[in-house]
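QUALITY CONTROL LOG
STEP: pairwise intake check
CHECKER ROLE: data steward
CRITERIA: each record must contain a sequence immediately followed by its structure tokens, with no blank fields

ENTRY 1 OF 2
RESULT FIELD BELOW
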Amino acid sequence: MAALPPSLQSIRDDFLALSVPDRLQLLLEFSDSLPEVPEGLIDSDEWERVEECQSPVFISVDATPDSVVVHATAPAEAPTTRGFASILVHGLNGMTPQQIKAVPADFPLLLGLQNAVSMLRLRGMSGMLWRIKRQVDESLS
């Protein structure tokens, strides 16, 4: 398995150190810490809907050759999905485009949440990660 960047490794380790019910609680804590979208971005047309998510989740990426900033929105009524978005925002912000492209596609499965949430929800997080990677590629091409 490819080495995870330190921020994602730390998040993964935090999840795996807990029992399954406590992992779900940690996911809900991440839900509460999804950063607010900066005022100038709220009405931007650069948001992309994550179709794999049943909830209305939107992703926007600002990428330079040296650093990436990820923004996400997810409704408070969808705490699991919001938690996944928050994990990606916290874990990926500040990385280089190359680091983001190297994140394994199965990262959502590495959190050990398969027995806590449905595969449909994990697929939603995979969709978020895929869109982030694609937006990084598009913004630098």
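ENTRY 2 OF 2
RESULT FIELD BELOW
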Amino acid sequence: MRPNVLIVVVDSLRADRVWGGARTCQTPNLDDFRRSATAFTRAYSVASTTTPCTTSILTGTYPFVHGVHSLAGRRLGSELPTLPELFKASGFHTWAEMTGPLEAVTGLDRGFDEYRCREYTQWLDTQFGDELVARLRADGNRPWFGYLHLWEVHYPRRVTGRYHRSSYGRTLYDRSVSSLDEQLGRVLDAVDDDTFVLFTADHGEYLAQSRKNELVTRLKGPTAWLKRHVPGVKKLKRRVMPLVFRGMRGGTPTDTEGYRAWLGHGFHVYESLVHVPLLVRGPSRFPAGSEVSSMVSHVDLFPTLASALELGNGGPSHRGGLDLTRVLEQGDGAARSAIYLQASGARRMNRPEQWLAGIRTERHKYVRGMFNDALPEELYDLESDPGERENVAGKLPDVAADLRGRLDELMQSEATSEPAEDTAYTPEEQALLEQRLQDLGYLD
């Protein structure tokens, strides 16, 4: 009998809130789960927004291969097999509980017997969570593959009951992580010990370091409500925002910490935005309580699951991904030397000229415009500048040139032909997706 498989993805959850001595959140359930799993402490998303990250998890390919960079342009085409298709062909019942921007029209529903994109306010502590837990406890007659996407940590941050106290976190973000941990405990308790569980985040989040900027970002929720219900607020916001965040220019991210925290994610590939937790509880090849410090990517999850669960020849054909069981067996000799990253956030979704592509090595991170050579190159020495505050591209031109070449080589080697079918959204589908983003507060 093959085990059931559950992927849990928490939107906007930073890796340093699952481990690390500096965190102020309280996560006893995640701590217990970590002791039963293998922790990949340097796992990275391919992008800093949800839709391309999710597509990469489900296809084992980079965004420049699957073509889903944002909610504009195209849906996932049929030329690439998906993880749920592989599970379904192997006899699993497949289901997905999605939220946020992950509407079925994106093509991400392919291969799922059941695919639901619920309203983000259907949290785990509501009736939705009760029904999910009941289902997980009862659904044991056939092997299943489930994908659960959670919105609690994403703005506006869900904090319940006693978790509003400072003892559960210094910031609203930390308290939302503590609050979610209680609900995750219910989910993890509902599946049997033999269930293969993979826990991660789609991307991270930029948080204000100063209390003043954190308080300003709390205005996001009320501002979104006012924009939807009060005429003229949109125009007023465009005039007021530059005064609130000095240096802001027409929605283009700047070095202003407050504005970065207001955006949250999607505008860059800083470590806080792309470093994600990855915990895997599975067969004996994932030893309990162990840690792996090699760099790994979301594109590695497809071939890893295909190999660990013996799902047939699904993983090796996938571009970009590595089988992490080989990394566990062979160590750094089978690990990556570089990670691909990109930023094509919601506010940039119709502006490919603002998209960023980057590559991260053990020491450096190089970033440039994906399609626009006029954008300045960025290079950060992560060893001496872990906060990525000083662009040293001018000081280290040889390093920048080397990483530019490695990035170009990676993108060219993984390049694919144009999809065989028309994957452009219809005007009606695009309107649906943009309305979804407005409801989520991403678009005016």
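INTAKE CHECK: passed for both entries
DESCRIPTIVE NOTE, ENTRY 2: The CA atoms of residues 1 and 143 lie 8 Å apart.
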